[in-house]
Amino acid sequence: MNPWHEDYKRRYAQLKENGKSFFPHTVFKDVCVALLVLTVLFALAYYRPAELEPLADPTDTHYNPRPEWYFLFLFQALKFFPGNLEAVAAILLPGLGVLLLMGVPFLDRGPKRHPFDRPLWTGLGLAGIAGFAALTWAGVRSPLTNPTEEADPQVAAGRRLYDQMSCAYCHKIGGKGGAVGPALDKVAGDETEEWLTRHFKDPQSVTPGSAMPKMNLLDDEVKILVAYMKSMHAEEPFTKAAPKIFADNCAACHKLGKEGGEAGPDLSFIGTARDKAFIKKYVEDPSTSKPDSAMPAFKGQLTDVQIEDVARYLSSQGR
Ligand code: HEC
Ligand code: HEC
């Protein structure tokens, strides 16, 4: 037998002779620590409860699925493996890792216990930890795949009401739903708010003979449904020239982001308050929307195409 075994046995016998018994001494310590951990857990659960996210919504293209931080390394590792190889990263590699961990007592048979005396195994362990850390960090910094949306509470409420009222029985959004009425993500955003409001109060009044039932909605309900419908308008792309048109003609009076003048309102979030149609009309001739407007009319100054372009550009600001 190895000499270190003898050593170990002698020390063990000695410790056993003058040591304290497992019960109650060690058990007491265990119970104390377990109680402490439980208390902390309870306190955390009570004061900082994990929050539930909204119900999964297949029509919400702004959602960014992300795991908790302790799974980010796996999330990141998956990105190195294309589709059909995912199982390698998700099951095979972690499985091998765990097998290796279980094997350590059999593989590392050296008598020395100090980490510095076992460079290979200590090194492997450290490399593993460094790998986790690096993958986790890369996962934290990896760009979101979907654009984040300023959560507009009206739109969110409208979306919930849409679900509750089973509008999907007749309408499609994001390709899901019935076909009695039109696909709302294609058409509803283009209607004006007034039209939508009247339509919701009484569909027949704007579309004679409409098959859409009158639903006796409260004014508040109409408002959030309209907000939801308007939020779906198809993004109309602006050209590369739009920012320049703005810089040349508007930035003297308007801020956009950090830059611009103070004479007119900051337009950084205009897209959350005004739609393209409003902006276009305003730019063409402000006095039609605001009789005492201090802003010059741009019809004639800019071509229709340019005004359309800058209106699209602005209506996307802050969205
Ligand atoms: C029984 C079927 C039915 C139900 C339920 C229904 N709709 Fe409709 N909807 C229609 C039909 C048919 C039309 C097309 C005729 C019209 O414009 O009124 C329509 C039109 C619309 C339009 C106008 C689209 C456009 O721009 O032309 C909107 C917006 C709309 N529905 C929203 C809703 C919402 C929101 C709900 C739920 C609160 C709902 N609908 C429930 C059948 C339905
Ligand atoms: C001489 C200064 C000036 C210039 C140049 C100017 N604006 Fe304005 N703008 C204003 C002022 C002041 C207001 C505030 C309301 C009013 O008096 O019309 C305003 C209001 C607006 C609004 C309405 C904001 C709201 O929500 O009610 C929009 C949109 C707008 N401007 C867009 C533009 C665009 C686009 C251009 C360039 C093509 C431009 N403005 C050029 C001064 C200017």
State the main characteristics:
319 residues, mainly alpha, Helix Hairpins, Cytochrome Bc1 Complex, Chain D, domain 2, 4 domains, 15 helices, binds heme C
Fold blueprint:
Blueprint lengths: L2 H16 L3 H26 L24 H7 L7 H22 L11 H23 L11 H12 L7 E2 L2 E2 L6 H4 L5 H9 L1 H4 L12 H13 L10 H8 L5 E2 L2 E2 L9 H4 L2 H9 L1 H4 L14 H12 L4
Antiparallel strand pairs: 1-2, 3-4
Helix pairs in contact: 3-5, 6-10, 8-10, 11-15, 13-15
The structure holds heme C (HEC) (2 copies).
Largest sheet, if any? 2 strands, antiparallel
CATH architecture of the largest domain: Orthogonal Bundle
Question: Termini, distance in Å?
Answer: 75 Å
Number of domain units = 4
SS-based structural class?
Answer: mainly alpha
Write down the overall geometry. Answer: elongated
The chain-level mean pLDDT equals 86
Sheet-strand content, in percent, reads under 5%
Using only C-alpha atoms, the radius of gyration works out to: 32 Å
> In total, how many beta strands?
4
Give the low-pLDDT segments. none
Order of helices and strands: HHHHHHEEHHHHHEEHHHH
Q: Care to describe what's here?
A:
Helix 11 (242-249) crosses helix 15 and helix 13 crosses helix 15. It is elongated and about 100 Å long. It contains 15 helices and four strands. The longest helix has 26 residues, at 22-47. The strands form two sheets. It has a two-stranded antiparallel sheet. A two-stranded antiparallel sheet has the order 3-4. It folds into four domains: 22-51; 59-147, Helix Hairpins; 153-231, Orthogonal Bundle (Cytochrome Bc1 Complex, Chain D, domain 2); 242-315, Cytochrome c-like domain (Cytochrome Bc1 Complex, Chain D, domain 2, Orthogonal Bundle). Strand 3 (255-256) and strand 4 form a beta hairpin. The protein has helices at residues 3-18, 22-47, 72-78, 86-107, 119-141, 153-164, 184-187, 193-201, 203-206, 219-231, 242-249, 270-273, 276-284, 286-289, 304-315; strands at 172-173, 176-177, 255-256, 259-260. By secondary structure, the chain is mainly α. The structure holds heme C (2 copies).
